[in-house]
């Protein structure tokens, strides 16, 4: 097996994790990292015995990586991704693909034109609890789905200055809705607020209407504890996913007996079984990067389609438009 050379551009919080995973991966050699703050690149490079550069350009002029992860702030994704595609045939751009659909399209078009394998880091698709949830839904266990509710709330990470909570956080769940149900969003009604963020919205509530179901998003950077949960309610019961602990439960609908009396009902006897489904816990970023490397080795398509990342941005834009206008869009 030929050893693949990997590089990472952007050595902040997420880039350092990409570097760690490539460095630990069998058959992959983390050759170089870059950050415009050279001390950050140097620190990550030293940890993994790689080379450090102060820009993507410098890195690409001196190294020939087979694969590169781009983990710079989202507003720079377009420029760095376009530059990377001049040199590298396998490019992974962190989520969101870009900060607007026009930039996202440019990245996707360029990847097609240059025949570059492009993947967008929609990490929750690789969360084992979400993967199992998809299997369960497809097996028909819950029947028709009526309602999806999302909670992605927690404190404000002050390093995020360039993005609002919709494009930075809600984009995860918007992508998961597409991954699980593959239905276009028909209508959106959203409310956003800016309470403590210096530039952008840090509070979002949105209702998304699909043909067959409705989704309600509750996303913010204001809650003092981190909660990442998904509730899927359908004909035969409800699934709950805790993205953080990777726990997946199924609450079965009760088969309502004839003649149930009031004391039984208030004691909860009308509830069905609650089943904890087996999920083998794994680090989602490791699963994601393993899948990307595997697609390179097999010469197959990237494990998720960049067009889906573009769809997620289009929904983000609808949400922002609805919140601005105070109208359903
Ligand atoms: N998949 C996930 O769960 C997840 C989690 C966190 C962040 N992210 C994404 O990862 C990206 C980075 O986020 P972060 O939290 O690591 O940010 P960060 O601020 O911690 O790190 C970004 C780094 O990029 C460097 N940088 C900025 N412009 C650069 C350029 N042009 N060239 C080289 N380096 C440059 C900065 O100096 C900084 O070290 C964002 O797009 C974010 O949305 C994804």
UniProtKB/TrEMBL annotation:
<dbReference type="GO" id="GO:0000166">
    <property type="term" value="F:nucleotide binding"/>
</dbReference>
<dbReference type="InterPro" id="IPR000683">
    <property type="entry name" value="Gfo/Idh/MocA-like_OxRdtase_N"/>
</dbReference>
<feature type="domain" description="Gfo/Idh/MocA-like oxidoreductase N-terminal">
    <location>
        <begin position="5"/>
        <end position="122"/>
    </location>
</feature>
<dbReference type="InterPro" id="IPR051450">
    <property type="entry name" value="Gfo/Idh/MocA_Oxidoreductases"/>
</dbReference>
<protein>
    <submittedName>
        <fullName>Gfo/Idh/MocA family oxidoreductase</fullName>
    </submittedName>
</protein>
<feature type="domain" description="Gfo/Idh/MocA-like oxidoreductase C-terminal">
    <location>
        <begin position="134"/>
        <end position="329"/>
    </location>
</feature>
<dbReference type="Pfam" id="PF02894">
    <property type="entry name" value="GFO_IDH_MocA_C"/>
</dbReference>
<dbReference type="InterPro" id="IPR036291">
    <property type="entry name" value="NAD(P)-bd_dom_sf"/>
</dbReference>
<dbReference type="Pfam" id="PF01408">
    <property type="entry name" value="GFO_IDH_MocA"/>
</dbReference>
<dbReference type="InterPro" id="IPR004104">
    <property type="entry name" value="Gfo/Idh/MocA-like_OxRdtase_C"/>
</dbReference>
């Amino acid at each position: 097996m030929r050893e693949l050379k990997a590089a990472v551009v952007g050595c902040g919080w997420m880039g350092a994790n990409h570097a760690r995973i490539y460095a630990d991966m069998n058959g992959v050699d983390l050759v170089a990292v870059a950050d415009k703050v050279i001390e950050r690149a140097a620190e990550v490079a030293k940890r993994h015995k790689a080379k450090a550069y102060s820009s993507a350009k410098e890195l690409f002029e001196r190294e020939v990586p087979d694969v590169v992860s781009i983990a710079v702030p989202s507003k720079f994704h377009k420029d760095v991704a376009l530059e990377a595609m001049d040199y590298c045939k396998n490019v992974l751009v962190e989520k969101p693909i870009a900060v607007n659909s026009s930039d996202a399209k440019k990245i996707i078009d360029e990847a097609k034109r240059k025949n570059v394998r492009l993947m967008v880091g929609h990490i929750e698709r690789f969360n084992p609890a979400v993967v199992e949830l998809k299997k369960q839904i497809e097996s028909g266990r819950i029947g028709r789905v009526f309602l999806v509710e999302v909670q992605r709330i927690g404190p404000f990470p002050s390093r995020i200055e360039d993005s609002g909570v919709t494009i930075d956080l809600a984009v995860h769940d918007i992508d998961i809705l597409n991954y699980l149900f593959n239905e276009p969003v028909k209508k959106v009604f959203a409310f956003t607020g800016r309470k403590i963020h210096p530039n952008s919205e840090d509070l979002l509530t949105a209702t998304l209407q699909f043909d067959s179901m409705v989704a309600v998003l509750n996303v913010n950077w204001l809650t003092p504890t981190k909660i990442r949960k998904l509730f899927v309610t359908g004909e035969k019961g409800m699934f709950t996913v805790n993205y953080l602990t990777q726990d997946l439960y199924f609450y079965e609908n009760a088969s309502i007996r004839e003649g149930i009396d009031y004391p039984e009902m208030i004691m909860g006897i009308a509830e069905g079984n609650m089943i904890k489904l087996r999920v083998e816990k794994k680090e989602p970023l490791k699963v994601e990067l393993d899948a990307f490397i595997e697609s390179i080795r097999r010469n197959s398509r990237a494990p998720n389609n960049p067009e889906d990342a573009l769809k997620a941005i289009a929904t983000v834009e609808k949400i922002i438009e609805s919140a601005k206008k105070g109208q359903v869009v």
